[in-house]
Amino acid sequence: MSAFVVHNLELDGQGGAKSLPLSDLPKILPEQGCRWVHLDCYEEEGYTWLSSVEGIPETAVEALFAEETRPRTVRMGKGLLLTLRGVNLNPESNPSDMVSLRLWVTPHFIVSSRRRKLLSVQGVVKDLNNNEGPTNTADVVATLTETLTDRMAKVITDLEDELADLEESIGEGIESGQRDSLVQRRLETIRLRRFLVPQKEAINKLSQEAVSWMSVEQIARVQEAANDITRYVEGLESLRERCLLMQEEFANLQAEKMNARMYVLSILSGIFMPLGFLTGLFGINIGGMPGTDSNAAFWLFCAALVVLGGGQFVLMRRSRWF
């Protein structure tokens, strides 16, 4: 198999598929059977081959190899262009850095493209190899839609748990790193919601546009995926509000902590200000200073400072300054 073709499959209609060689890539849009070709967007050979296939509009080819995509469903030529996003579950990757999957679908042919690996596609191909996969193109689309949606559930649940733990730790006291963790969770929430809102609309439109070649059961599965995404969007909206409230709570706790420290400094300043004034006054080295000829003057002055400081402390205490 060439580098630009990730999978070249012919579905048998019984849940299985046969992997075909590169020489068996279609040159004309298939009008029977069920073919699925999965391409790597980074390889220019894929663009060249797809542009040469008779029956595929140029706009669909451009969309499948576009650098930036947002979830959408658009009718192009004899098929539907479907762009979806899935959570990034690749090793050492951030799940909120969602991976795009682009598909151009007809009743007998699917061509899809990727820029990064998507585990949902690998899962469907594995099921086909085990004769437990989809039976036709409509079933492939419905299965991919379901799989992409189902894999989001754990990511959002984990995000909820992380925020709950962070919320509890902030309530127990501010620690280093909490603010950075909160900001990171909020950014993940925003990234996920950014693509899930248009994805819900794309899947809803898919269930309307594909009624001619999807069965009632397949349309119901697609609509159920749209309902699940609606719940995820509502959950992410709730998480975003919780992040904002936690940021406010974090700022309030920081302000209270700072105010308490400033209050202690103010009390100490109030006590030592007159004492500092007196020590400064009696520290000047000019004639006429009282007590310069007495050996007990220093100790009497120290005792006077202690009495003055103690008196200030008692006065502040009775005035309920602290």
Automatic annotation (TrEMBL):
Keywords: Cell inner membrane, Cell membrane, Coiled coil, Ion transport, Membrane, Transmembrane, Transmembrane helix, Transport, Zinc. Residues 149-176, 222-256 form a coiled coil. It is found in: Cell membrane. The keyword Cell division does not apply. The chain crosses the membrane at residues 262-284, 296-316. CDD domains: ZntB-like_1. Pfam families: CorA. It is a multi-pass membrane protein. It comes from the Bacteria. InterPro entries: CorA_cytoplasmic_dom, CorA_TM1_TM2, MgTranspt_CorA/ZnTranspt_ZntB. The keyword Transmembrane applies. PANTHER family: CORA FAMILY METAL ION TRANSPORTER (EUROFUNG) (PTHR46494), ZINC TRANSPORT PROTEIN ZNTB (PTHR46494:SF3). Belongs to the CorA metal ion transporter (MIT) (TC 1.A.35) family. This is Zinc transporter ZntB. It comes from Marinomonas rhodophyticola.
